[in-house]
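Dear colleague,

Thank you for sharing your sequence with our group. We've completed the structure prediction you requested, and as agreed, I am returning the results in plain text so they can be pasted directly into your records. Please verify that the sequence below matches your submission; if there's any discrepancy, let me know and we will rerun it promptly.
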Amino acid sequence: MIPDRDPVAATVAPDGPATEAIDADADADHGAGGTAAEGQHVVLLSGLSGAGKTAAAKLFEDLGYAVVDNLPGELLPELAELVADDRERFRKVAIVLDVRSGDAPMAFGAMRGALEGRGIRPQVFFLEARDEVLIRRFSETRHRHPLADQRGIASSIVAERRLLDPVRSESDVVIDTSDLPLRELRERIFTRLGEAADPTRLAIQLISFGFKYGVPLEADLVFDVRFMQNPYYIDELRQLSGLTAEVRAFVLGQPVAQEFLRYLREFLAFALPAYVGEGKTRLTIALGCTGGYHRSIALTEALADWLRERDFGPVAVFHRELDRT
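Please find the predicted C-alpha coordinates below.
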Protein backbone atom coordinates (compact mmCIF):
# COMPACT_ATOMS: atom_id res chain seq x y z
CA MET A 1 0.00 0.00 0.00
CA ILE A 2 1.36 3.43 -0.93
CA PRO A 3 0.79 5.80 2.01
CA ASP A 4 -1.43 8.78 1.27
CA ARG A 5 0.45 10.80 3.91
CA ASP A 6 -2.73 11.22 5.89
CA PRO A 7 -1.73 13.24 8.97
CA VAL A 8 -4.13 11.50 11.31
CA ALA A 9 -2.10 8.31 10.97
CA ALA A 10 0.86 10.07 12.52
CA THR A 11 -1.17 11.43 15.44
CA VAL A 12 -2.63 8.09 16.48
CA ALA A 13 -0.80 5.49 18.53
CA PRO A 14 -1.81 1.86 17.91
CA ASP A 15 -5.14 1.32 19.66
CA GLY A 16 -4.68 4.59 21.51
CA PRO A 17 -6.63 7.83 21.30
CA ALA A 18 -6.07 10.09 18.37
CA THR A 19 -4.54 13.47 19.02
CA GLU A 20 -7.72 14.69 17.37
CA ALA A 21 -10.71 12.40 17.08
CA ILE A 22 -13.82 11.25 15.28
CA ASP A 23 -17.34 12.29 16.14
CA ALA A 24 -19.15 8.96 16.11
CA ASP A 25 -22.53 10.63 16.36
CA ALA A 26 -21.86 12.46 13.11
CA ASP A 27 -21.72 9.16 11.25
CA ALA A 28 -24.24 9.52 8.43
CA ASP A 29 -25.77 6.56 6.65
CA HIS A 30 -26.53 7.07 2.97
CA GLY A 31 -27.76 3.64 2.02
CA ALA A 32 -26.55 0.08 1.95
CA GLY A 33 -23.51 -1.13 0.12
CA GLY A 34 -22.58 -4.61 -0.96
CA THR A 35 -21.63 -6.72 -3.93
CA ALA A 36 -23.46 -8.99 -6.32
CA ALA A 37 -20.52 -11.38 -6.46
CA GLU A 38 -20.97 -14.19 -3.95
CA GLY A 39 -18.33 -13.96 -1.25
CA GLN A 40 -16.62 -10.92 -2.79
CA HIS A 41 -16.55 -7.53 -1.13
CA VAL A 42 -15.14 -4.37 -2.69
CA VAL A 43 -14.73 -1.13 -0.75
CA LEU A 44 -14.15 2.32 -2.19
CA LEU A 45 -12.53 4.50 0.47
CA SER A 46 -12.50 8.25 0.03
CA GLY A 47 -12.44 11.38 2.14
CA LEU A 48 -10.58 14.50 3.08
CA SER A 49 -6.81 14.58 3.43
CA GLY A 50 -5.98 14.23 7.11
CA ALA A 51 -9.29 12.58 8.00
CA GLY A 52 -7.79 9.13 8.63
CA LYS A 53 -7.71 7.26 5.31
CA THR A 54 -4.25 5.83 6.05
CA ALA A 55 -5.44 4.43 9.39
CA ALA A 56 -8.58 3.06 7.73
CA ALA A 57 -6.58 1.47 4.92
CA LYS A 58 -4.38 -0.24 7.51
CA LEU A 59 -7.51 -1.61 9.18
CA PHE A 60 -8.68 -3.07 5.88
CA GLU A 61 -5.26 -4.67 5.43
CA ASP A 62 -5.55 -6.21 8.89
CA LEU A 63 -8.92 -7.65 7.88
CA GLY A 64 -7.39 -9.35 4.85
CA TYR A 65 -8.28 -6.81 2.17
CA ALA A 66 -5.97 -6.10 -0.74
CA VAL A 67 -5.54 -2.32 -0.50
CA VAL A 68 -4.87 -0.22 -3.60
CA ASP A 69 -3.92 3.38 -2.84
CA ASN A 70 -3.00 6.38 -4.98
CA LEU A 71 -3.55 4.66 -8.31
CA PRO A 72 -3.72 7.09 -11.28
CA GLY A 73 -7.27 7.56 -12.49
CA GLU A 74 -6.36 6.29 -15.95
CA LEU A 75 -5.62 2.82 -14.51
CA LEU A 76 -8.85 2.42 -12.55
CA PRO A 77 -10.87 0.74 -15.35
CA GLU A 78 -8.11 -1.86 -15.73
CA LEU A 79 -8.18 -2.45 -11.98
CA ALA A 80 -11.96 -2.96 -12.09
CA GLU A 81 -11.54 -5.51 -14.86
CA LEU A 82 -8.84 -7.34 -12.90
CA VAL A 83 -10.98 -7.45 -9.73
CA ALA A 84 -13.99 -8.73 -11.69
CA ASP A 85 -12.08 -11.33 -13.69
CA ASP A 86 -10.30 -12.96 -10.73
CA ARG A 87 -12.90 -12.89 -7.95
CA GLU A 88 -11.26 -15.67 -5.98
CA ARG A 89 -7.96 -13.84 -5.74
CA PHE A 90 -9.65 -10.49 -5.11
CA ARG A 91 -12.37 -11.59 -2.72
CA LYS A 92 -11.75 -8.57 -0.49
CA VAL A 93 -10.46 -5.35 -2.02
CA ALA A 94 -10.27 -1.78 -0.69
CA ILE A 95 -9.55 0.98 -3.21
CA VAL A 96 -8.57 4.44 -1.95
CA LEU A 97 -9.82 7.28 -4.18
CA ASP A 98 -9.29 10.95 -3.37
CA VAL A 99 -8.01 14.20 -4.87
CA ARG A 100 -4.65 12.60 -5.64
CA SER A 101 -6.40 10.71 -8.44
CA GLY A 102 -6.91 13.99 -10.32
CA ASP A 103 -10.58 14.67 -10.96
CA ALA A 104 -11.81 12.74 -7.91
CA PRO A 105 -15.56 12.72 -8.73
CA MET A 106 -14.83 11.59 -12.28
CA ALA A 107 -12.42 8.89 -11.08
CA PHE A 108 -14.94 7.75 -8.47
CA GLY A 109 -17.76 7.61 -11.02
CA ALA A 110 -15.59 5.75 -13.51
CA MET A 111 -14.46 3.19 -10.94
CA ARG A 112 -17.92 2.64 -9.52
CA GLY A 113 -19.42 2.38 -12.99
CA ALA A 114 -16.74 -0.06 -14.12
CA LEU A 115 -17.35 -2.28 -11.10
CA GLU A 116 -21.14 -2.17 -11.29
CA GLY A 117 -20.96 -2.85 -15.02
CA ARG A 118 -19.26 -6.13 -14.09
CA GLY A 119 -21.84 -7.05 -11.47
CA ILE A 120 -19.96 -5.73 -8.43
CA ARG A 121 -21.68 -3.23 -6.10
CA PRO A 122 -18.93 -1.58 -4.05
CA GLN A 123 -19.49 -0.26 -0.55
CA VAL A 124 -18.34 3.36 -0.28
CA PHE A 125 -16.79 4.81 2.89
CA PHE A 126 -16.09 8.54 3.23
CA LEU A 127 -13.99 10.04 6.05
CA GLU A 128 -14.12 13.69 6.99
CA ALA A 129 -13.28 16.02 9.90
CA ARG A 130 -13.85 19.61 10.95
CA ASP A 131 -11.63 22.23 9.34
CA GLU A 132 -9.89 23.24 12.56
CA VAL A 133 -9.06 19.61 13.31
CA LEU A 134 -7.59 19.05 9.86
CA ILE A 135 -5.53 22.23 10.11
CA ARG A 136 -4.17 21.14 13.49
CA ARG A 137 -3.26 17.69 12.17
CA PHE A 138 -1.37 19.14 9.21
CA SER A 139 0.37 21.59 11.51
CA GLU A 140 1.47 18.83 13.89
CA THR A 141 2.72 16.46 11.20
CA ARG A 142 4.00 19.15 8.80
CA HIS A 143 2.72 17.13 5.88
CA ARG A 144 1.88 18.92 2.67
CA HIS A 145 -1.77 19.07 1.66
CA PRO A 146 -2.21 17.59 -1.85
CA LEU A 147 -3.93 20.81 -2.99
CA ALA A 148 -1.48 23.13 -1.25
CA ASP A 149 -0.62 26.30 -3.14
CA GLN A 150 -0.33 30.00 -2.41
CA ARG A 151 -3.80 29.96 -0.79
CA GLY A 152 -2.63 28.22 2.38
CA ILE A 153 -3.86 25.11 4.19
CA ALA A 154 -7.28 26.45 5.20
CA SER A 155 -8.18 27.38 1.62
CA SER A 156 -6.87 24.03 0.38
CA ILE A 157 -9.17 22.20 2.78
CA VAL A 158 -12.16 24.26 1.65
CA ALA A 159 -11.33 23.52 -1.98
CA GLU A 160 -10.92 19.80 -1.32
CA ARG A 161 -14.20 19.63 0.57
CA ARG A 162 -15.96 21.24 -2.38
CA LEU A 163 -14.29 18.90 -4.90
CA LEU A 164 -15.21 15.78 -2.94
CA ASP A 165 -18.78 16.75 -2.09
CA PRO A 166 -20.22 14.70 -5.00
CA VAL A 167 -18.38 11.63 -3.73
CA ARG A 168 -19.58 12.22 -0.19
CA SER A 169 -23.19 12.49 -1.32
CA GLU A 170 -23.02 9.04 -2.95
CA SER A 171 -21.25 7.29 -0.08
CA ASP A 172 -22.83 4.47 1.90
CA VAL A 173 -21.06 5.34 5.15
CA VAL A 174 -19.83 8.82 6.16
CA ILE A 175 -17.70 9.09 9.32
CA ASP A 176 -16.56 12.31 10.95
CA THR A 177 -13.19 11.56 12.55
CA SER A 178 -12.88 14.82 14.46
CA ASP A 179 -13.41 13.37 17.95
CA LEU A 180 -13.04 9.62 17.48
CA PRO A 181 -10.10 7.60 18.88
CA LEU A 182 -8.51 5.13 16.50
CA ARG A 183 -10.00 2.16 18.34
CA GLU A 184 -13.51 3.50 17.86
CA LEU A 185 -12.83 4.26 14.21
CA ARG A 186 -11.78 0.65 13.73
CA GLU A 187 -14.93 -0.62 15.44
CA ARG A 188 -17.13 1.71 13.43
CA ILE A 189 -15.65 0.69 10.09
CA PHE A 190 -15.65 -2.98 11.00
CA THR A 191 -19.28 -3.06 12.03
CA ARG A 192 -20.38 -1.35 8.82
CA LEU A 193 -18.56 -3.68 6.42
CA GLY A 194 -20.89 -5.39 4.00
CA GLU A 195 -24.00 -4.40 5.90
CA ALA A 196 -27.37 -4.92 4.24
CA ALA A 197 -25.85 -6.71 1.26
CA ASP A 198 -28.78 -9.14 1.51
CA PRO A 199 -31.86 -7.87 3.38
CA THR A 200 -33.10 -11.42 3.94
CA ARG A 201 -30.02 -12.46 5.94
CA LEU A 202 -28.02 -11.10 8.83
CA ALA A 203 -24.51 -9.77 8.36
CA ILE A 204 -22.93 -10.92 11.62
CA GLN A 205 -19.87 -9.26 13.10
CA LEU A 206 -18.03 -10.86 16.00
CA ILE A 207 -15.64 -8.83 18.14
CA SER A 208 -13.34 -10.20 20.80
CA PHE A 209 -12.19 -7.54 23.27
CA GLY A 210 -10.68 -6.83 26.67
CA PHE A 211 -12.86 -5.18 29.29
CA LYS A 212 -9.91 -3.21 30.61
CA TYR A 213 -9.81 -1.37 27.26
CA GLY A 214 -13.54 -0.66 27.17
CA VAL A 215 -16.64 -2.31 25.70
CA PRO A 216 -17.03 -1.99 21.89
CA LEU A 217 -19.43 0.87 21.22
CA GLU A 218 -21.08 -0.85 18.27
CA ALA A 219 -21.94 -4.11 20.00
CA ASP A 220 -25.59 -5.17 19.97
CA LEU A 221 -24.90 -8.11 22.30
CA VAL A 222 -22.07 -8.29 24.85
CA PHE A 223 -21.03 -11.46 26.67
CA ASP A 224 -18.59 -11.53 29.58
CA VAL A 225 -16.40 -14.67 29.60
CA ARG A 226 -14.16 -13.68 32.54
CA PHE A 227 -15.69 -16.44 34.67
CA MET A 228 -13.52 -19.00 32.85
CA GLN A 229 -10.03 -20.06 33.85
CA ASN A 230 -7.50 -17.59 32.43
CA PRO A 231 -4.58 -18.90 30.31
CA TYR A 232 -2.67 -15.76 31.28
CA TYR A 233 -1.73 -17.43 34.56
CA ILE A 234 -0.25 -20.47 32.76
CA ASP A 235 3.38 -19.60 32.03
CA GLU A 236 3.60 -21.54 28.76
CA LEU A 237 0.35 -20.00 27.47
CA ARG A 238 0.73 -16.38 28.58
CA GLN A 239 2.42 -15.15 25.40
CA LEU A 240 0.17 -17.18 23.07
CA SER A 241 -3.07 -15.76 21.70
CA GLY A 242 -6.45 -17.42 21.56
CA LEU A 243 -5.77 -18.20 17.91
CA THR A 244 -3.18 -20.83 18.82
CA ALA A 245 -4.09 -24.48 19.18
CA GLU A 246 -2.67 -24.59 22.72
CA VAL A 247 -4.78 -21.75 24.11
CA ARG A 248 -7.86 -22.84 22.17
CA ALA A 249 -7.57 -26.34 23.65
CA PHE A 250 -7.09 -24.96 27.17
CA VAL A 251 -10.10 -22.63 26.95
CA LEU A 252 -12.49 -24.91 25.10
CA GLY A 253 -11.44 -27.87 27.21
CA GLN A 254 -13.06 -26.31 30.26
CA PRO A 255 -16.53 -27.75 30.95
CA VAL A 256 -17.77 -24.26 31.81
CA ALA A 257 -16.71 -23.05 28.35
CA GLN A 258 -18.64 -25.81 26.61
CA GLU A 259 -21.69 -25.10 28.78
CA PHE A 260 -21.45 -21.39 27.94
CA LEU A 261 -21.23 -22.12 24.21
CA ARG A 262 -24.21 -24.46 24.44
CA TYR A 263 -26.37 -21.78 26.07
CA LEU A 264 -25.13 -19.13 23.65
CA ARG A 265 -25.87 -21.27 20.59
CA GLU A 266 -29.37 -22.02 21.86
CA PHE A 267 -30.02 -18.34 22.41
CA LEU A 268 -28.70 -17.32 18.98
CA ALA A 269 -30.56 -20.12 17.20
CA PHE A 270 -33.71 -18.57 18.66
CA ALA A 271 -32.79 -14.88 18.36
CA LEU A 272 -31.16 -14.59 14.93
CA PRO A 273 -34.24 -15.63 12.90
CA ALA A 274 -36.30 -13.27 15.06
CA TYR A 275 -33.93 -10.39 14.28
CA VAL A 276 -34.29 -11.11 10.56
CA GLY A 277 -38.07 -11.23 10.97
CA GLU A 278 -37.97 -7.74 12.47
CA GLY A 279 -35.99 -6.43 9.52
CA LYS A 280 -32.55 -6.24 11.17
CA THR A 281 -29.79 -6.68 8.59
CA ARG A 282 -26.65 -6.64 10.75
CA LEU A 283 -25.79 -7.80 14.24
CA THR A 284 -22.60 -7.21 16.21
CA ILE A 285 -21.79 -9.69 18.98
CA ALA A 286 -18.90 -8.96 21.34
CA LEU A 287 -17.21 -11.44 23.67
CA GLY A 288 -14.93 -9.98 26.31
CA CYS A 289 -12.38 -11.22 28.80
CA THR A 290 -9.92 -9.20 30.87
CA GLY A 291 -7.27 -8.46 28.25
CA GLY A 292 -9.00 -9.68 25.11
CA TYR A 293 -6.08 -11.92 24.16
CA HIS A 294 -6.91 -15.46 25.26
CA ARG A 295 -10.42 -16.54 26.31
CA SER A 296 -12.46 -14.10 24.25
CA ILE A 297 -10.49 -14.87 21.06
CA ALA A 298 -10.77 -18.64 21.43
CA LEU A 299 -14.51 -18.48 22.15
CA THR A 300 -15.16 -15.98 19.35
CA GLU A 301 -13.47 -18.29 16.86
CA ALA A 302 -15.52 -21.24 18.12
CA LEU A 303 -18.72 -19.22 17.82
CA ALA A 304 -17.78 -18.08 14.31
CA ASP A 305 -17.28 -21.71 13.23
CA TRP A 306 -20.76 -22.62 14.49
CA LEU A 307 -22.43 -19.60 12.89
CA ARG A 308 -20.84 -20.40 9.53
CA GLU A 309 -21.95 -24.01 9.78
CA ARG A 310 -25.52 -22.87 10.43
CA ASP A 311 -25.30 -20.31 7.60
CA PHE A 312 -27.33 -17.57 9.28
CA GLY A 313 -25.49 -15.04 7.11
CA PRO A 314 -21.98 -13.79 6.36
CA VAL A 315 -19.74 -13.80 9.43
CA ALA A 316 -16.79 -11.44 9.99
CA VAL A 317 -14.41 -11.70 12.94
CA PHE A 318 -12.38 -8.87 14.47
CA HIS A 319 -9.98 -9.48 17.38
CA ARG A 320 -9.64 -5.94 18.68
CA GLU A 321 -6.77 -6.43 21.12
CA LEU A 322 -4.72 -8.90 19.08
CA ASP A 323 -2.16 -6.30 18.00
CA ARG A 324 -1.73 -4.68 21.40
CA THR A 325 1.23 -6.81 22.39
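Summary note from our side: The CA atoms of residues 202 and 281 lie 5 Å apart.

Kind regards,
the structure core
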